[in-house]
Amino acid sequence: MKQTYIIGEIGQNHNGSVEIAKRIIDKVAEPVIDELFGEKLRSMNAVKFTKRDLKEELSNSAMLKPYKNPNSFGSTYGEHREFLELDDNQHFELYKYAKSKGLEFIETLCARGCLSMTKLFLPDKLKVASRDLTNLPLLEAMAETKIPMILSTGMGGKKELDDALDTISKYHSDISILHCLSQYPSEYKNINLKSINYLEDNYKDYTIGYSDHSIGIMMPVAAVAMGAEIIEKHITLDRNMKGTDHKGSLGVDGLFRMVRDIRNLEKAMGEKEIFINDSVKETRIKLERSIASNRSIKKSEIITESDIHLLSPGDGFGWTDRHLVIGKEAKVDINKDEIIYKNMF
User: FRET label pair with 333: which of 112, 128, 192, 284, CA 20 to 30 Å apart?
Assistant: First the structure.
Protein backbone atom coordinates (compact mmCIF):
# COMPACT_ATOMS: atom_id res chain seq x y z
CA MET A 1 0.00 0.00 0.00
CA LYS A 2 0.98 3.64 -0.25
CA GLN A 3 3.14 4.98 2.54
CA THR A 4 1.02 6.80 5.09
CA TYR A 5 1.83 10.49 5.50
CA ILE A 6 2.19 10.81 9.29
CA ILE A 7 2.02 14.27 10.84
CA GLY A 8 3.28 14.91 14.34
CA GLU A 9 1.17 17.79 15.60
CA ILE A 10 3.30 19.83 17.97
CA GLY A 11 0.76 22.65 17.88
CA GLN A 12 1.65 24.73 20.89
CA ASN A 13 3.08 21.88 22.97
CA HIS A 14 6.36 23.78 22.73
CA ASN A 15 5.01 25.90 25.63
CA GLY A 16 6.33 29.04 23.99
CA SER A 17 9.89 27.69 23.74
CA VAL A 18 11.81 27.21 20.49
CA GLU A 19 14.20 24.88 22.29
CA ILE A 20 11.40 22.60 23.48
CA ALA A 21 10.03 22.62 19.94
CA LYS A 22 13.42 21.54 18.58
CA ARG A 23 13.65 18.74 21.11
CA ILE A 24 10.28 17.42 19.95
CA ILE A 25 11.44 17.64 16.32
CA ASP A 26 14.54 15.65 17.28
CA LYS A 27 12.35 12.87 18.66
CA VAL A 28 10.13 12.87 15.58
CA ALA A 29 13.16 12.55 13.31
CA GLU A 30 14.72 9.62 15.17
CA PRO A 31 14.79 6.39 13.15
CA VAL A 32 12.18 3.83 14.12
CA ILE A 33 13.77 0.41 14.64
CA ASP A 34 11.57 -2.65 14.88
CA GLU A 35 13.74 -4.75 17.18
CA LEU A 36 11.74 -7.93 16.50
CA PHE A 37 12.99 -8.12 12.91
CA GLY A 38 15.83 -5.59 13.14
CA GLU A 39 14.28 -3.37 10.50
CA LYS A 40 14.66 0.38 10.18
CA LEU A 41 11.27 1.92 9.43
CA ARG A 42 10.35 5.31 7.99
CA SER A 43 9.83 7.86 10.75
CA MET A 44 7.11 10.52 10.69
CA ASN A 45 6.85 12.58 7.53
CA ALA A 46 6.09 16.01 8.95
CA VAL A 47 5.66 18.19 12.00
CA LYS A 48 2.91 20.74 12.39
CA PHE A 49 2.78 23.96 14.36
CA THR A 50 -0.05 26.38 15.08
CA LYS A 51 0.04 30.14 14.54
CA ARG A 52 -2.54 32.55 15.90
CA ASP A 53 -2.99 36.27 15.37
CA LEU A 54 -4.33 37.40 18.72
CA LYS A 55 -5.99 40.43 17.11
CA GLU A 56 -8.23 37.96 15.26
CA GLU A 57 -8.61 35.36 18.00
CA LEU A 58 -11.27 36.21 20.60
CA SER A 59 -13.45 39.08 21.71
CA ASN A 60 -11.79 41.65 23.94
CA SER A 61 -13.79 40.54 26.98
CA ALA A 62 -12.83 36.91 26.37
CA MET A 63 -9.15 37.83 26.11
CA LEU A 64 -9.35 39.77 29.39
CA LYS A 65 -11.16 36.99 31.23
CA PRO A 66 -9.20 35.69 34.24
CA TYR A 67 -7.50 32.38 33.44
CA LYS A 68 -6.21 30.78 36.59
CA ASN A 69 -5.65 27.04 36.50
CA PRO A 70 -2.67 24.64 36.68
CA ASN A 71 -2.16 24.87 32.90
CA SER A 72 -2.28 28.66 32.65
CA PHE A 73 0.69 30.70 31.44
CA GLY A 74 -0.92 34.04 32.30
CA SER A 75 -3.43 35.67 34.61
CA THR A 76 -5.87 36.29 31.73
CA TYR A 77 -6.67 34.12 28.74
CA GLY A 78 -5.09 36.73 26.48
CA GLU A 79 -1.83 36.61 28.45
CA HIS A 80 -1.93 32.82 28.34
CA ARG A 81 -2.36 32.80 24.57
CA GLU A 82 0.33 35.42 24.06
CA PHE A 83 2.84 33.41 26.10
CA LEU A 84 2.36 30.41 23.82
CA GLU A 85 2.83 32.29 20.55
CA LEU A 86 6.03 32.11 18.56
CA ASP A 87 6.67 34.94 16.12
CA ASP A 88 7.25 34.55 12.37
CA ASN A 89 11.03 34.45 12.73
CA GLN A 90 10.81 31.68 15.33
CA HIS A 91 8.52 29.67 13.05
CA PHE A 92 11.05 30.20 10.25
CA GLU A 93 13.82 28.94 12.52
CA LEU A 94 11.80 25.81 13.28
CA TYR A 95 10.98 25.36 9.59
CA LYS A 96 14.69 25.31 8.75
CA TYR A 97 15.42 22.99 11.67
CA ALA A 98 12.73 20.49 10.65
CA LYS A 99 13.95 20.58 7.06
CA SER A 100 17.48 19.82 8.22
CA LYS A 101 16.08 16.69 9.85
CA GLY A 102 14.36 15.53 6.67
CA LEU A 103 10.86 16.49 7.81
CA GLU A 104 8.18 18.47 6.02
CA PHE A 105 6.74 21.47 7.81
CA ILE A 106 3.04 22.23 8.14
CA GLU A 107 1.36 25.25 9.67
CA THR A 108 -2.14 25.56 11.06
CA LEU A 109 -3.00 29.21 10.50
CA CYS A 110 -5.85 30.59 12.58
CA ALA A 111 -6.14 34.05 11.01
CA ARG A 112 -5.39 35.88 7.79
CA GLY A 113 -2.76 37.91 9.65
CA CYS A 114 -0.73 34.73 10.16
CA LEU A 115 0.01 34.64 6.44
CA SER A 116 2.72 37.21 7.17
CA MET A 117 5.06 34.26 7.72
CA THR A 118 4.93 33.49 3.98
CA LYS A 119 7.17 36.52 3.46
CA LEU A 120 9.91 34.47 5.15
CA PHE A 121 9.12 30.92 3.98
CA LEU A 122 6.43 28.75 2.44
CA PRO A 123 5.25 25.81 4.56
CA ASP A 124 4.91 22.52 2.70
CA LYS A 125 1.22 22.45 3.56
CA LEU A 126 -1.30 24.67 5.30
CA LYS A 127 -3.76 23.16 7.75
CA VAL A 128 -7.26 24.46 8.43
CA ALA A 129 -8.37 23.67 11.97
CA SER A 130 -11.89 22.29 12.06
CA ARG A 131 -13.11 25.33 13.98
CA ASP A 132 -12.22 27.41 10.92
CA LEU A 133 -13.90 25.15 8.36
CA THR A 134 -16.63 27.82 8.11
CA ASN A 135 -14.15 30.73 8.18
CA LEU A 136 -14.39 31.17 4.42
CA PRO A 137 -12.48 34.48 4.28
CA LEU A 138 -9.51 32.74 5.96
CA LEU A 139 -9.80 29.74 3.64
CA GLU A 140 -9.82 32.00 0.61
CA ALA A 141 -6.75 33.92 1.79
CA MET A 142 -4.89 30.64 2.43
CA ALA A 143 -5.96 29.19 -0.92
CA GLU A 144 -4.63 32.23 -2.76
CA THR A 145 -1.10 31.16 -1.76
CA LYS A 146 -1.55 27.96 -3.86
CA ILE A 147 0.10 26.02 -1.00
CA PRO A 148 -1.43 22.51 -0.60
CA MET A 149 -4.10 22.52 2.09
CA ILE A 150 -5.44 20.04 4.64
CA LEU A 151 -8.95 20.34 6.07
CA SER A 152 -10.19 18.73 9.29
CA THR A 153 -13.88 17.93 9.50
CA GLY A 154 -14.04 17.77 13.32
CA MET A 155 -16.72 20.44 13.80
CA GLY A 156 -18.33 20.27 10.39
CA GLY A 157 -20.66 18.15 8.31
CA LYS A 158 -21.14 17.75 4.58
CA LYS A 159 -22.42 21.27 3.94
CA GLU A 160 -19.55 22.90 5.82
CA LEU A 161 -17.03 20.70 4.03
CA ASP A 162 -18.56 21.36 0.60
CA ASP A 163 -18.60 25.13 1.19
CA ALA A 164 -14.93 25.01 2.20
CA LEU A 165 -13.98 22.95 -0.85
CA ASP A 166 -15.89 25.29 -3.17
CA THR A 167 -13.98 28.25 -1.72
CA ILE A 168 -10.52 26.69 -1.96
CA SER A 169 -10.97 24.99 -5.34
CA LYS A 170 -11.36 28.37 -7.03
CA TYR A 171 -7.61 28.67 -6.55
CA HIS A 172 -6.26 25.10 -6.55
CA SER A 173 -7.26 21.47 -6.04
CA ASP A 174 -4.35 20.20 -3.94
CA ILE A 175 -6.56 19.48 -0.95
CA SER A 176 -6.62 16.70 1.65
CA ILE A 177 -9.55 15.95 3.96
CA LEU A 178 -9.11 14.48 7.43
CA HIS A 179 -11.97 12.84 9.26
CA CYS A 180 -11.81 14.20 12.78
CA LEU A 181 -13.77 14.40 16.03
CA SER A 182 -13.20 17.60 17.99
CA GLN A 183 -13.77 16.01 21.37
CA TYR A 184 -10.74 16.06 23.67
CA PRO A 185 -10.13 13.27 24.42
CA SER A 186 -12.38 11.57 21.89
CA GLU A 187 -14.68 8.86 23.21
CA TYR A 188 -14.46 5.78 21.03
CA LYS A 189 -18.24 5.58 20.63
CA ASN A 190 -18.21 8.98 18.92
CA ILE A 191 -15.25 8.56 16.55
CA ASN A 192 -17.10 6.83 13.68
CA LEU A 193 -14.12 5.65 11.66
CA LYS A 194 -16.44 4.63 8.83
CA SER A 195 -16.58 8.32 7.91
CA ILE A 196 -13.18 7.63 6.31
CA ASN A 197 -14.87 5.26 3.86
CA TYR A 198 -17.66 7.79 3.26
CA LEU A 199 -15.10 10.45 2.37
CA GLU A 200 -13.24 8.02 0.10
CA ASP A 201 -16.47 7.20 -1.75
CA ASN A 202 -17.80 10.74 -2.05
CA TYR A 203 -14.66 12.87 -2.37
CA LYS A 204 -12.57 10.81 -4.76
CA ASP A 205 -10.60 13.81 -6.04
CA TYR A 206 -8.99 14.38 -2.65
CA THR A 207 -6.57 12.55 -0.36
CA ILE A 208 -8.43 11.23 2.69
CA GLY A 209 -6.96 10.81 6.15
CA TYR A 210 -7.69 10.94 9.86
CA SER A 211 -6.83 13.41 12.61
CA ASP A 212 -6.98 11.67 15.97
CA HIS A 213 -7.79 13.04 19.41
CA SER A 214 -8.29 9.73 21.21
CA ILE A 215 -5.97 8.38 23.86
CA GLY A 216 -3.42 5.85 22.65
CA ILE A 217 -2.51 4.56 19.19
CA MET A 218 -5.31 2.13 18.37
CA MET A 219 -7.46 4.56 16.34
CA PRO A 220 -4.71 5.86 14.01
CA VAL A 221 -3.57 2.32 13.21
CA ALA A 222 -7.17 1.21 12.58
CA ALA A 223 -7.72 4.26 10.36
CA VAL A 224 -4.77 3.28 8.18
CA ALA A 225 -6.19 -0.22 7.87
CA MET A 226 -9.42 1.38 6.64
CA GLY A 227 -7.61 3.34 3.95
CA ALA A 228 -6.54 6.62 5.57
CA GLU A 229 -3.51 7.98 3.70
CA ILE A 230 -2.73 10.74 6.22
CA ILE A 231 -2.57 10.45 10.01
CA GLU A 232 -2.28 13.43 12.31
CA LYS A 233 -1.61 13.00 16.02
CA HIS A 234 -0.68 15.40 18.84
CA ILE A 235 2.79 14.72 20.26
CA THR A 236 4.76 15.96 23.25
CA LEU A 237 7.99 15.33 25.12
CA ASP A 238 6.12 14.58 28.34
CA ARG A 239 2.40 14.09 28.86
CA ASN A 240 2.78 15.52 32.37
CA MET A 241 4.08 18.89 31.19
CA LYS A 242 2.14 22.03 31.99
CA GLY A 243 -0.28 22.94 29.22
CA THR A 244 -3.74 21.96 28.02
CA ASP A 245 -2.80 19.61 25.15
CA HIS A 246 -0.04 17.50 26.70
CA LYS A 247 -2.21 14.92 28.47
CA GLY A 248 -4.09 14.17 25.26
CA SER A 249 -0.90 13.86 23.22
CA LEU A 250 1.46 10.98 22.52
CA GLY A 251 4.65 10.92 24.51
CA VAL A 252 7.95 9.77 23.04
CA ASP A 253 7.27 6.07 23.59
CA GLY A 254 3.76 6.32 22.18
CA LEU A 255 5.09 8.18 19.15
CA PHE A 256 7.53 5.35 18.48
CA ARG A 257 4.89 2.65 18.87
CA MET A 258 2.36 4.39 16.63
CA VAL A 259 4.82 4.94 13.80
CA ARG A 260 6.20 1.41 14.16
CA ASP A 261 2.73 -0.13 14.00
CA ILE A 262 1.58 1.98 11.05
CA ARG A 263 4.73 1.24 9.04
CA ASN A 264 4.43 -2.47 9.76
CA LEU A 265 0.74 -2.38 8.85
CA GLU A 266 1.64 -0.82 5.50
CA LYS A 267 3.83 -3.82 4.75
CA ALA A 268 1.25 -6.27 6.06
CA MET A 269 -1.70 -5.06 3.95
CA GLY A 270 -0.44 -6.75 0.79
CA GLU A 271 -2.73 -7.43 -2.16
CA LYS A 272 -6.29 -8.61 -2.65
CA GLU A 273 -5.40 -12.23 -3.40
CA ILE A 274 -4.91 -15.55 -1.63
CA PHE A 275 -1.66 -17.42 -2.24
CA ILE A 276 1.06 -19.44 -0.52
CA ASN A 277 3.81 -17.10 0.57
CA ASP A 278 7.41 -18.19 0.03
CA SER A 279 8.12 -17.49 3.70
CA VAL A 280 6.04 -20.48 4.83
CA LYS A 281 7.87 -23.07 2.69
CA GLU A 282 9.92 -24.56 5.53
CA THR A 283 6.96 -24.48 7.90
CA ARG A 284 4.80 -26.32 5.36
CA ILE A 285 7.38 -29.09 5.03
CA LYS A 286 7.66 -29.38 8.80
CA LEU A 287 3.98 -29.29 9.71
CA GLU A 288 1.85 -30.37 6.77
CA ARG A 289 1.00 -34.05 6.36
CA SER A 290 2.06 -36.64 3.82
CA ILE A 291 0.87 -40.15 2.99
CA ALA A 292 2.40 -42.62 5.45
CA SER A 293 2.07 -46.32 6.21
CA ASN A 294 -0.33 -47.30 8.96
CA ARG A 295 1.13 -50.84 9.07
CA SER A 296 4.36 -52.55 8.12
CA ILE A 297 4.32 -53.08 4.35
CA LYS A 298 6.59 -55.80 2.99
CA LYS A 299 8.55 -55.60 -0.23
CA SER A 300 6.44 -56.63 -3.29
CA GLU A 301 3.13 -56.00 -1.49
CA ILE A 302 0.54 -53.88 -3.28
CA ILE A 303 -0.30 -50.73 -1.36
CA THR A 304 -4.03 -50.19 -0.73
CA GLU A 305 -5.94 -47.23 0.68
CA SER A 306 -6.44 -49.10 3.93
CA ASP A 307 -2.64 -49.23 4.29
CA ILE A 308 -2.15 -45.47 4.47
CA HIS A 309 -2.90 -42.43 6.61
CA LEU A 310 -1.38 -38.96 7.03
CA LEU A 311 1.61 -37.88 9.15
CA SER A 312 4.09 -35.00 9.20
CA PRO A 313 6.44 -33.87 7.69
CA GLY A 314 4.84 -32.66 4.49
CA ASP A 315 7.60 -33.50 2.03
CA GLY A 316 5.84 -36.54 0.56
CA PHE A 317 2.56 -37.14 -1.28
CA GLY A 318 -0.53 -35.22 -0.21
CA TRP A 319 -3.91 -36.94 0.18
CA THR A 320 -5.13 -35.56 -3.17
CA ASP A 321 -2.22 -37.44 -4.82
CA ARG A 322 -2.99 -40.76 -3.12
CA HIS A 323 -3.82 -42.27 -6.54
CA LEU A 324 -0.07 -42.10 -7.27
CA VAL A 325 0.57 -44.45 -4.32
CA ILE A 326 -2.46 -46.76 -4.14
CA GLY A 327 -2.09 -49.85 -6.32
CA LYS A 328 1.69 -49.58 -6.50
CA GLU A 329 4.09 -52.38 -5.52
CA ALA A 330 6.44 -51.73 -2.64
CA LYS A 331 10.11 -51.89 -3.76
CA VAL A 332 11.38 -52.06 -0.19
CA ASP A 333 10.09 -52.94 3.25
CA ILE A 334 8.20 -49.93 4.66
CA ASN A 335 7.97 -49.72 8.43
CA LYS A 336 4.74 -48.68 10.14
CA ASP A 337 4.14 -44.90 10.49
CA GLU A 338 6.75 -43.81 7.96
CA ILE A 339 6.30 -41.39 5.08
CA ILE A 340 6.00 -43.22 1.73
CA TYR A 341 8.29 -41.57 -0.82
CA LYS A 342 8.42 -42.14 -4.59
CA ASN A 343 11.57 -44.30 -4.41
CA MET A 344 9.76 -46.79 -2.19
CA PHE A 345 7.41 -48.13 -4.87
Answer: 284
